[in-house]
Design goal:
- With 188 residues, the protein is an alpha/beta fold.
- It has a single domain, classed as Rossmann fold (3-Layer(aba) Sandwich), CATH 3.40.50.
- The chain has seven helices and six strands.
- It has a six-stranded parallel beta sheet.
- Helix 5 packs parallel to helix 6.
- The longest helix is centred in the N-terminal third of the chain and has 20 residues.
Length: 188
């Protein structure tokens, strides 16, 4: 299968009770439930599950201040949230919104002949959008799972998903994704 699941920034500083830069509280539990279900299904279908997290250097004083000192490399806040289902140690750090700025991640995807990226995580208006648009520029096809992304607000999530669709990115809910993946497996 030429698909990979990218899980973006499900880190303590964004979704825990002590988050420095939190996702809207009512997005967290439904998003985590969807992401964890997708992880289990992807693993069942032998789709690589790739965890990605922000890791910012402490010396980036101004940009860290703008991010409320969230996800500083080595901090508790930069760790993946304990509620996230972890099935492997395939993890790539990033220090920019677009996960594909990590050349090791891009090399891994190319080596494994990945053509389609399924993206879940936070923030829809930030890293999800930047990574999805970056993936299109890198000639991947992209699906963003709308019930598996979180934002600072409902309005930002809706607007971001609409913009992504306008950029040629497929947006669907996890139920649609499961049907599509299972049908793909039957045809294979």
């Amino acid at each position: 299968m030429n698909k990979a699941l990218l899980i973006l920034d499900i880190q303590n500083d964004f979704i825990s009770d002590e988050a420095r830069m939190p996702v809207a509280k009512h997005h967290i539990e439904p998003m985590l439930s969807s992401i964890n279900s997708i992880i289990i299904e992807a693993d069942h279908l032998n789709i690589p599950v790739i965890y990605i997290g922000n890791e910012f250097e402490a010396k980036q004083v101004i940009s860290n201040w703008l991010r409320k000192n969230s996800a500083i490399k080595g901090s508790e806040g930069a760790k993946l949230d304990e509620r996230l289902t972890i099935i492997n140690d395939l993890y790539f750090p990033k220090n920019a919104a677009n996960a594909l700025t990590n050349s090791e991640l891009v090399s891994y995807l190319r080596e494994k002949n990945m053509k389609h990226l399924i993206i879940v995580g936070v923030f829809t208006e930030g890293c999800v959008t930047a990574t999805a648009n970056g993936a299109i520029r890198e000639n991947f096809s992209v699906t963003v799972v709308e019930d598996a992304v979180g934002s600072a607000s409902d309005k930002k999530r809706v607007q971001s998903l609409q913009k992504l669709e306008g950029n040629g990115i497929t947006v669907m809910n996890s139920s649609e994704l499961f049907r599509k993946l299972l049908n793909y497996e039957k045809v294979k």
